[in-house]
Amino acid sequence: MTQTLPRTPGPVRRSERALAPDLARGAMLLFIALANAANFTFAGQPGLDPDPHGLARVVNFFMATFVDSRAYPVFAVMFGYGLVQLARRNPDRVLLRRNTALVAFGLVHAALLYFGDFLGAYGIVGIVATLLLVRRGDRVHRVVLWLWGIQTVYALFLAGTAIAGAHGGSAGISNSPNPSLAADTYGRSILDRLVEWPVHTATVLPFIVIVWLGIWAARRRVLEEPAAHRTLLRRTAIVSLGISTLGALPYAAMCAGLVHADAGTVGAMARVHAVTGEYGGPGYVALFGLVALRLAGRTPRILAPVVALGQRSLSGYLWQSLCWVALFSPWALHLGGTWAAALAALAVWAVSALGAQAMSARGHRGPAETLLRKFAYR
Prior knowledge:
With 378 residues, this protein is mainly alpha-helical. The protein contains 16 helices and two strands.
């Protein structure tokens, strides 16, 4: 069954934007920066120091608990939410052009800068969701709640199995190498990325279940009308962030060198960490919804750069990749180490937020957003 969404033609004006989505995108770009800078630093995933000492243990613990596998689901939820907002104002052909352009953006981004691109996957999922999900009725969208219920049972099963089979040992964590990040020339890195990107894109496509949850929430205008959904937001934040955090703690303790186990246990806890990380998406989004509710839709001056960055999140994301290539590539500055990655992430994110605020003050959209709109609206 299809459903007609109320439509106001054209792109969304700044005055019509809800606070929570932009605040969430802008703030969580810091976590994306922390994750990707670390990935570049250690030329592999998850981008954690395999032999941490001193404060590096704290960084490893923080990254494994709150960032790794927990930041990208926020953008997946927000992508689904945005699809419905776009569908309310535009025919499907605009959504299809926009998502096709995202696939092209992803290919260029991956070829030139970073294999770990999500734009191509967003574009593919966006095309599928536009054709099959966005305009379907409530009965179809209830399926996603059942899917998340089944996944929760699966996560509990994984956790129970991992705990029951845990054994002590001396195995440590290791970073799965990405050749493009260790290439000694820019040309070599391009060739490596063109091989890595399709594989990476294929492995992340299942996040359509996270995108679908964002579609479900947008149909109920959860973030545009947070006061009407206070209880839902509060319960989602508590339960989802609770699952995300508890599921991360055993693996985080191993990453910090606080707990030592055999290779089988490390692998099992890594799987629990990855599955429970998906709950970080709805958990963080709900948390920012509650913050927006507390602010009553007003943007304090201190948060204005973060919100401005959220309105230009595509440009901010691409800017980050450009910086990582320059700072960490073996053929460029080749910075290295846990602290170099963390400090660079903070600095690059802060510069992008201030730059976004400057563009906002002049009434300019981000360059990537402007180009994407030209493709979508012609």
